[in-house]
Amino acid sequence: MAKNILGLDLGTNSIGWALINQDFDKKEGRILGMGSRIIPMSQDILGEFGKGNSVSQTAARTGYRGVRRLRERFLLRRERLHRVLNLLQFLPDHYASQIDFEKRFGKFKQETEPKLVYNANEFVFKKSFGEMLSDFKKYQPQLLDNDKKVPYDWTIYYLRNKALTQKIEKEELAWILLNFNQKRGYYQLRGEEEEENPNKLVEFYSLKIIDVLADEPQKGKADIWYSLILENGWIYRRSSKIALFDWKGKTRDFIVTTDLNDDGSVKTDKDGNEKRSFRAPSENDWTLVKKKTESEIDKSETTVGTFIYNALLKNPKQKINGKLVRTIERKFYKIELKKILETQKSFHPELQNDDLYSDCVRELYKNNEAHQLTLSKKDFIHLFMDDIIFYQRPLRSQKSTISNCTLEFRKYKDENGVEHTQYLKAVPKSNPYYQEFRVWQWIYNLNIYKRDDDSNATKEFLNTTHDFENLFEFLNNRKEIDQKALLKHFKLSEKTYRWNYVQDKKYPCNETKAMISSRLDKVENITDNFLTREIEQKIWHIIYSVNDKIEYEKALKSYANKNDLDEVSFFEAFKKFPPFRSEYGSFSEKAIKKLLPLMRLGKYWNYDNINDYSKNRIQKIITGEFDKNIPNKVREKAIHLTTENNFQGLQLWLAQYIVYGRHSEASLIGKWNSVDDLEGFLKEFRQHSLRNPIVEQVITEALRVVKDIWLKYGNGEKDFFHEIHIELGREMKNTADDRKEITNMVTENENTNLRIKSLLAEMMNDNAVENVRPYSPMQQEILKIYEDGILKSDIEIDEDILKISKTAQPSSSDLKKYKLWLEQKYKSPYTGQIIPLNKLFTPEYEIEHIIPQSRYFDDSFSNKVICESSVNKLKDNYIGLGFIKQFHGYKVSDKIKIFEIEEYEDFVKKHYANNRGKRNKLLLEEIPEKMIERQLNDTRYISKYISGILSNIVRIEDGSDDGVNSKNIVPGNGKITTQLKQDWGLNDVWNELILPRFERMNHLTKSTDFTAWNENHQKFLPTVPIEFSKGFSKKRIDHRHHAMDALVIACATKDHVNLLNNQSAKSDTKRYDLKKKLMKFEKVVYNQPQTGERIEREVAKQFLKPWENFTFEAKSSLETIVVSFKQNLRVINKATNHYEKWVEKNGVKTKERVEQTGINWAIRKPMHKETVSGKVDLPRIKVPKGKILTATRKSLDTSFDLKSINSITDTGIQKILKNYLEFKGSPEVAFSPEGIEDLNVNIEKYNDGKAHQPINKVRVFELGSKFQVGQIGNKNDKYVEAAKGTNLFFAVYQDEKGKRSYETIPLNIVVERQKQGLPACPQTNEKGENLLFQLSPNDFVYLAIEEGNDNAIPLNFNLLSKRQIFNLYKIVSFTGNRLYAIPICVATTIVNKVEYTQLNKIEFTKEKDLLVKLNVDRLGNLIKA
């Protein structure tokens, strides 16, 4: 029967699809359609995703919105403070007059931003400033010499110090309050503090360096190690490229970590030296500045303001913000302000006036009578501190992001009588119920295998109820478990047994109980049996549910008192308990409470704990009483459960059937009979429900592609698709940790491949090495196996060789050295004979599959070794150890003899000690069952999710296809497509498709480096020189490879998947039958090595093609594919904002959520770059017309060379920095952190002996085309540059004569036009020319001209020729009247900045006049725009 089969290849930002109609039995078929749909994504987002970080493309916008919210909250606090201070009449008149207290409730009047301390540019608090100068005359008389100026800003610190003991003016107190509102310290959330480690003492020190000693420089290394002798006798070791001798005599800040024994004494190493580590980070190090400031404030026993003021009196030159005080905890500020207010309360009667206090409360809370009542019992100190300045809003609930439980829900009717289903939320993984549930589930899935024969030995150790009870007790009291500890529990060794889980991974047990228990051990006078199951639940609830640090501390003390615990020790034990991670299980707490009583067993089980509903169902199952809610399927699965006592120790799936009559995912099962059903799912799909924006975007776009295919090829008819075959890219189906690991592995493999290619090129020049072909993939692979075998053997490797082995492109001398070292070190695994490097590429040696390909498809690196060709022929279909047991001691020739069994085992264990994968395979006799099982299921959540959704399209409705994944969904993987592409000739097709680009590269570079002659195929193949090969992949340079992969996936039947996934590896008959069905056999004749007998047999060589002309049809289809790109041109959208408002109903005021009236717009693109510049006027710089001169503050660093220094606005600073740079010699030395410190200490020396303020930041000017941030207030003095990628519309205008003109429409104009409901591009330009069409990034254009031919080529949309496809371009970007594009199939350049100019894109010049804009749908169908 002919079937319509859809193949899908889903990548991180791509969807490949192919629809075929195939009759496998008749070997007939045809391609109905195929294509590639691309979701454009920047490389940095793709890179982050590969590293394991799920980054939303709107993450930056969300970040900026967060910053805006913080600012808005600060302004709101300031406005509330203004209103209170105004009622108290504490605000200076000039300041209060600029605030609107009538309509804007404490906001500044439009286009004003007054300064409290300045009135008409005159400093207001001159009296206090004079008092401060008196202090400086006393402590720093030289500061006031020669009319030197002291900053007015320092007066605030003087006032903060004075206000602790003396009266200050009410206006000065208002300044202090507004200052605290602006800088109120860092609020440390619970769990952000570092938990104290009893074996680590972390302290802050400022220590003087009394001597610096340098080690001898190491050969080939730029860094030199230094020993810095500190004033207290400690030695700080560090490496540096810059000499550190000038550190001598200087004081440095350190964070010192001392290792302690359990008794608190300092640990020592074997030489008796105390174990201590140092960290001397830069001043930008957040941890250091915080620890340093807090340590110094504590030591000074003063408030923050007094500490700063005293520090200024001692050293007026030092920087305050960022240097003296940067980020310290809020508690320091709260202590200071409380002291100030308590002191000033006695001097200012207004702060004690109850009527005035009531007026202030009513002013802030006119409608909130409940809060008015609460505050009426407080005073001004509480109002200022807790209600305004240090108010911290509760964290917003994240409940909506938690996934739903698929078992528990409630139904309800809304006010219109419509019934809704509301699912309960999943339980936190830290919940003790979930922790116990996970342990039981883990136990029931545990299997123990013998290593020698891989037989399942679980029943020997885990059989009786007592065995399960002991194991549960063992696991339930642990935080985590690994293989060694588990086997030790059963008194077994890792050498002879293994478990079925990942062998070197730790698995969680009852983490919550272990963590609570470890802290209860520190509580004084607590009983041994205190921690019951109920107590554990209550303590967990406090830790999990209370987020606020202060509330959490209160809850701990309250709990200790209620339970008669020692309050101090209980509080100390739990106060730094880290908050539990926001991770959730699959079920709700309610569901787990129902399932757990059936999963427990032995002494942990009690029939009475089962809920009544479940008990009723159990009784009916036992007695056989009819109940329509208990389907026959449940009775069949529970047929062996005949008494109440049987309902314990049940597997999860069975417990679900008993309690709910179905498995957890049954609610997802359905059938879509039309396109409308699929459309309905997409409409109801909840954004962010997958909590991975990249995966979510690909899945929803894939469903839209499937919908369009269904409509175009099947007219939306029911059951049009018979099967859907799907493959997910590895990035899609792997977890974040796995993606990160794979990315690192890929980078390592790229480096290895480059090194191997370089080594082959080096060997080409060595006449002693035979038969070298540097571009041969086979030779690259054999050399890679050779190198890996040596590096991972028991050979001791020198450090210099190890360094070469990790370098991507070693130097020529290093390669010669490396080749010499590799020469005689690889040994054949079956004979122990040395395989010389110079003979490696001769017919004497071959790559050998440890587990033969004929028995088990495994083409991985860990299944390949190199051995003698004659041994490989003899080994035939045997597996490693099985071969040795059959042929041990056999002489293949005079020089080659097979190992004896014991010799072989010893050799493998020793020689492959560091290569566990190969060692284990070489010691196999047969293919283990577990190895087969491991390949069958792809259990990743995302794979199950997409398969489950697509199952709704192809599910059969006769009741035989009731699984979550329909049997008509066939999963594929990369291994399958790789093999089939090779055998079906698609690799050759691909080489032909992309060859023209490589021939063009030869032409551009005037070389032949980008093609290589292949003797076997007798044609040129595309290639790249070694220096460009890092990260290069022939497949990934062209978008059409997604469609090609999808075609292979569509044509790969269940039998292909079965065979290539080794499902039938244990049955020779089944495997042979499958091969006969799918593969092409060839007759092979050879002599039996032992007897010399002539043997003839048929051997499977390659997979048969799906149908006769498959390769030709595939090539034709690929040549005419039009790649489709998803566009994102949404610039603005209407935002519906809500706010809370007091509404009076029936005389009662209540808070209600109200929708904001009017139109609000959300801008979806960045309007400009982050850096804001100020306009400057420098007479020495000539400014061209249309440009402006702006300046930006920049920190001094090693990037400042002479050219950069010349762009500093201040010529005096220019002179100092030039003198200093000339003295030091290089920017790396002059402007390193140490160099800047040295500059500021000796600044007079570089300023002709004159004093100068320290230089840390400078203003740098630049010429550019920047625009104003806005027109109101100070925004018209701020200039910004347009953000990258925000040119979205390119207008093409045409006059009456047909002449075209071009214009890029700036984003700010597009925004304004769209707000008014106008199209992005004006219909006519300034010259009155009409809009012909507009272009945007990822739009398609057709270049209606052929090279060397000026005549336009008409476009046939229904039948595109290869030549016409060649003339299709995708718009990349534009600026002004310049337009850039790239051929539609190009995914990436062959060589960066070479193939398509320095910008990696083609600029259209005269061609613009011949462009025709085209529209393209998701499937790649073209329509003229």
Radius of gyration: 38 Å
> What strand line-up does the widest sheet have?
22-19-1-2-3-27
Report on the biggest sheet.
Answer: 6 strands, mixed
Judging from the principal axes of the Cα atoms, what is the shape?
globular
Uncertain segments: 44-53, 931-939, 1347-1352
Provide the residue-averaged pLDDT. 84
Q: Helix/strand-derived class?
A: alpha+beta
Q: How much helix is in the residues?
A: 25-40%
Provide the β-strand percentage band: 15-25%
Number of strands: 45
State the end-to-end distance. 41 Å
The tally of helices reads 49
What do you see in this structure?
The structure is a single chain. The protein is of the alpha+beta class and 1425 residues long. The protein contains 49 helices and 45 strands. Helix content is 38%, strand content 17%. The strands form 15 sheets. A six-stranded mixed beta sheet has the order 22-19-1-2-3-27, sandwiched between helices. A six-stranded antiparallel beta sheet has the order 43-42-41-40-44-45. Strands 10-9-8-11-12 form a five-stranded antiparallel beta sheet. A hairpin with a 2-residue loop joins strand 6 (118-119) and strand 7 (122-123). Helix 5 (155-162) packs across helix 8, helix 25 runs antiparallel to helix 26 and helix 28 crosses helix 31 (812-822). Residues 44-53, 931-939 and 1347-1352 have low confidence and may be disordered.
